[in-house]
Amino acid sequence: xxxxxxxxxxxxxxxxxxxxxxxxxxxxxxxxxxxxxxxxxxxxxxxxxxxxxxxxxxxxxxxxxxxxxxxxxxxxxxxxxxxxxxxxxxxxxxxxxxxxx
Length: 101
Hints:
The chain is of the alpha/beta class. It is 54% helix and 20% strand. It has a domain at 27-96: Histidine-containing Protein, Chain: A (2-Layer Sandwich).
């Protein structure tokens, strides 16, 4: 009886896993062009050190996070992201990290 239950659970999990994986990845696939558009614009506009700025997108809403050395650079990143294709809204948690020289 225990062996039958294990087989049924394993079979159910095996059948459900691909469906759940595809369902979970659909938003990422849909928003990857938005993320790419924002990253491309940030690079083209030479917005500070873009390696320190992380871009995430979901349903046309873009989240910028990371750090910059000036508030002007952070503001420029937000404005640049707003102009990218597919962006409906931009939210930023970019932190300004001034040099301690």
